[in-house]
Structures are given as C-alpha cells and as structure tokens.
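I hope you will forgive my troubling you with a question about protein structure. I am sending you one protein, given as its amino acid sequence and as whole-number tokens for its backbone shapes. Thank you for your consideration; the sequence and its tokens are set out here:
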Amino acid sequence: MAATLRARSRDLVAASDPGLLRLTAGLRTVAAIALTLAVLGLLRADVSHLVGGAIAAMVATFAIREKERAQQAVTLALGLPVAFASLTLAAVLHSRVVGGDVFFVVLIFCAVYGRRYGDRGTALGLIGFQTYFLSLFVGATLSTLPQLYGVVGIAFAASALVRFVLVPETPEGILGRLRDAFRARLAQLVSAQLELLDAGPDDAETALEHLREGTARLHETAMMIQGRLEQGTADEAVARLVQRRIADAEIAAERLGLLLLTARSAERADTLTLHLPGAPVPPPGGRLPVGDEATAILRRDLEALRLLVLRPVSGGSGTGLAHVRNRLLGYRDEENLPKAPTAVQDVFRGIGEAARAVLGLRIALDGPQDESDDTPSTTRSREELDAEDLAIDAGEEEPEEEPTGLRRPTTRAAVQVAVGSSLAIVGGEFLSSQRWYWAVLTCWIVFINTASTGEILVKGYRRLLGTVLGVVAGLLLAGLVGHHTWTAFALVLLFVFAMFYTAPLSYTLMSFFVTAALGLLYTLLHTYSLSVLILRVEETALGAACGIITAAFVLPVHTDRRTNDLLGTVLDRLSDVTEAAVDQLSGGPAIDLLEMARDLDQALADLRAATQPLTHPVTPLRARRDTARYVVALLETCAYHARSLAATAELLPGNPSIAADPRLRRAGDRILRNIGAIAAHVADEHAEAEVETGPSIAALLESDRPGVSRYGRVTDRVLRHLQRLDEAVTGLARPLKVPVAAQVKKATK
C-alpha cells in the first residue's frame, strides 16, 4: 500500500513538473544561498555582506543555463572575473553620478547584446548587470571592495559546490525524468478520457476541458523531451528512435480522444474541439449509454491502457499485464471487438493503436521486453516496430540565414533597453536619488524574453501587479519578523524557492515573491519603512512605463507585425511538412519528417506566446481576442494532422505491410495551394491568391479505371488526416479574411 502511494505521488510530481526542472532550480538556488549564508555566518560577516552574498549566490546559480556540465563550469569560471570587474567599476564610480549612470547604460547594452552569443553570452551579461545592481543595493565603495570580493567569491564557490556536487544534474538524468513525466502525463490523459466517457450532461464541459488540458500538457512534455534529446543521448540513432516513439504515443493518445468524442456524439467530432478553449461539447448521440455492455468493456480497457502506461510488463504481475496488452493489441486485427456501433468500435481500434504506441515507447525507453507471452497480434506489432527502427536515418539541418544590423533581435533589444534604462535613470533620480535603480531593473526585466510592444505591455502589467501584492505581504512580514536576522533569511529562502518554482507558471506570482523577499532584505538592512515600499511600487511603475514607451517608439516591433511574421513562419513549416509527408506517402524518397514536424511545433509555440497580448483576459478588443484564439486553435489542429501524416509516412520505408499510393499527391495539391494562398495574404493583404474549395479529399482519389481499388491500407489512414487538414486550412480563410474562389463554389453545388 505504501509503495503504491509513493508511486502515485511520484507520478503526480513528475506530471506537474516535467523533468523536475522547476523543483531542481528552486532547490539548487536555495541551497547555494543557504551555504553562502552559513559560511559568511561562521566568518561573522555583517548583515550587508550577508545580503550581498545571498544575491550573488542567487545570480551565480540561475544565470547558468547551459545543458552540458563542462560548459556550465567554464561559464561559471568566466562569470567570477566578470562579477569582480562589475563590482570594481561600481565602487570606483560610486561618487560620480553622471559617469556611473553612463557606465550603467553601457553595461546594460552590452549585457543584452551578449545574448546573440548564446547561453554563455546571456549568462555573463546577466552576471555583470546583476552584480552592478548588487553593488548599488548594498552601497559598495572602494573601502568595502575587498570584503565584497570575498563575499562574491564565496557565493560563486557555494554555487559551484551545489551545482556539481550537492544537487547535480546531467542531461541524461533530465531526459530520464522527462520520460517519466511523459508517461505520467500520458496516463493522466487516459484518465481524462475515462472522465469524458463517464461524464453526464452536467459535467461534460468540465470533462472536455480536462481532456484539452491533458492533451496540451502531453504535447508540452513531448516538446521538452525533443529539446533535450541531443544532449541526453550519446547515440543519434537512439535519439531518433525516442523521438519517433514519443511522437507515435502523442498522436495515438490524441486520436483516441477524438474517437471517444465522436463515439459519444450525434455527429463526427471536429478536431478543433480539442484545441479551442470554450468550444462546446459535441451534442450527445446516445451511443454510449450508462450501463451499456460495450461502455463497460471500454471503461475496463481504458483502465488497462492506463495501467500499461505506468507499469512495465515484467515482475510478479507481468503475466496478467501481458494478457491485458495482448487483448488490447488484438483490436488492431479486429480480434474480439464488442458488438457496438461503428464509432464505438473505432474507439476500441484506437485503444489498440495506443497500446502499440505504448509498446514501442517501452522498447525505446527500457530496452527489449519479454516476448514469451506474445500472441500473433502482439508479434506482428513488434515486427512492425522493428522494421520501423531499422529505417531510421538521421538527417542534417540546414542553418537558417540570420538578420543583420538593427534587424537582428539582440541588437534591437540592446538599443531599446539602453534607451529605456536611460529614461528610467532620469525619472528614477527624480523619485529617489538613492533607489532609482529599481526603475532600471524593472525596465531591464520587462524586455527579457519579449519581442513585441504587446508582450512588453503585458509583462510590465504583471510585474506591477505582483509588486503591489508583494508590498502588502512585505508590510505584514516586516512587522512579524522585526529584526530577527535568521528568521528573515529563512523566509527569504522560502520565497526564493517559490519564486523559481512558480516562474514558468505565473510571472505575477514570481514578482510577488521577489518583492516580498526584498521587503525582508530591507528590514535586515534597517532601511525598511512604508515609504520605501511605496517608492518600490512607484519605481516599478516608472520602469515598466519607460520600457513600454521605448518599445513603442524606438525600433518598435508591433504585435500585429510580430504575429504576422510568426504566422507566416508557421504556414511555411506546415506547407513543408505536408508536402514532404504527402510526397513520401505517394512514393517519394524518405527524408527526416519528424524533425520538420518538430520545427512546425516550435514555430507554433512561438506564435502562441506572441499572441498572449491579444488573448489576455483584460484586453478590451474582445473580437480580436476571439479571432486570435480561433486561428491558433485551427493551426494546432493543422499541426496535429501534419504530425500524423509525417508519422505515418515514416512507417513506409521499413514496413512491408504498408504501401505508398501515388494518388495521394493529387489529394495534397489543393491543400498546399490553399496554404500558399493564405501565406500570401498574411505577407501582403492585397495579394490576389484565393482559397479553393471543391470535392472532398476522398473524391480526389477516385480512380478513372474500373476495377481499381479505391483505398489501400495506408490510404484509408491518411485520408482522414488529409480531409481534416483540408477543412482546417480552408477554415483559416474566414478569420484571416482570405477570399474563397467563387468559381469553385459554383462547381460544387
């Protein structure tokens, strides 16, 4: 019983924090700060040095983002002299207001510009900026410089000890935990499908929302795994195998959800239902009444599928699980299908395909499995998987051409931050000659990981909201803690952990914990007062305003332009994947389709992030918000079907039971033309290209010769995805205001 509870708790944690990345980041930072404070406490350092050491340890820990341990060590070693140089210049310029301000602006420009040199450039720039900020916070002078050198050196040493000894992290370990997270989230998605199966009219909306959430989380984890495969696996062929099996499992699970939606509906469920928040539940059709025998079997098999995901077919319960696995795989060969409507039987077939994907995932992640209890259907699934594995061929990526000059994002951002910080310095000096740097810090932060005016506006708003709430918390905590140094530091550690754990989830929460921690630090420095915290809010508002004004008038990238550029990129990637998949399915040469599908997913993730200002709940432009959500949902639908086409196409080279169908090329031509027409209108609203409609995709495959089979095995599978892709692409025409060819409409009446 205890072991089961531990396993469930482990799966829950793995699913909520894939790879334990947030937990590790929080623990590592807190441990580095605690170790630094412990050493400085033994050395009887004063409170200002304790505060400086805590900040330096935090910076030295979170600034390093490289994945390889050797690269992390080099960056950390280079960061120490950078920190010393920043401290020295800050102390030298302490009494020179103009010179110090000018240098700070130059430092900010260099720190942001350094992002063009990758993770190391970003880390060194961040260390230089934050160390200068530290010197301003503790009031560094030439006389205190030797002690600060020692404090920063201890902080960096503590960070290195925690990173490489106490809380070690390797790419292989992260990838292993991400794999566990994928299994846990896959099991959660099956649970959501069970919830949808049992949902009545009153809770169907909630069940569907859980299904959407589970589908999105599974895709998120799949993307995280693909981003870690190169560093986490020594063999490129193994990385390609894991990538394929992850993609297979994701597609099979999403397809099972669609089949379940269709089975409980009066009509065919639209793929868009899984991707559009707020989309209504398909109308009930009475096909899965409570108490029906087929429904009971379906519930049992979904439970069995979830068990297969979480437990390997080995150990004491291996025989029973092997029997369950064999039964589910048998549905692929029409074995023991319950008597039920066709739509319900399709769900059982979908369970069989999902069980095959789980089997492939097990083999890829855990190695060869026990085959002693295999049935013929299980043996066939293994043979198909083995044939697919032999067909793996790693492809090479072609480097993309990068923009130059002010068109380069890092250069433009560096100029913008420098100008915004100059405004923040001037305005901050008017508010306070002692704490003007808070405005500069806010201006710096709102530009980090943002690329458009709208993104900066939303981030500035969230920063200000979190700061206001943090000030209120700071008021309460300062009164409770008083001047109890170690109690305050314990709370600071707690807030630092919460800050890092919540950072990827909510920027407002992160800002709240930062401000609450700073309130405690002010208390320790004996500079706490209500006026100080109010000034903190004022400086934050000023910094956010300076950032927004600069983003709007200095080399601006408006949200519309940014989203249009990214939308064009998504359409290009969608066209590339669709064309390559259809070509391979029609008998063309084999290429790296999964890598192309990954590029499509990444482009779509960038677009989804860029549309956040348009879809934010407080936006006054409700129609525009709904349009942006609808377009992104349609593109997610397109991406799902494109991934499915790519995954199916990759089965062809080594699978003797699947043959190419040359007619599919004709079916894909209209989709590609329509994607091109939409992309042309996104690039130029005056473009004359039109979207074509006409006969169904299946009708395009009608043979002119009598006696020729209309569908083959691969064709039947591909047609559904091509038809849905065609519908989704055509659906993009209305929200994007792309004209539809009138003559084609007449022809289809």
Observations:
- The chain is about 70% helix and 0% strand.
- Confidence is low (pLDDT under 50) at residues 394-399, 704-712, 743-749.
- Residues 420 and 546 are 5 Å apart (CA to CA).
- The first helix runs from residue 2 to 16.
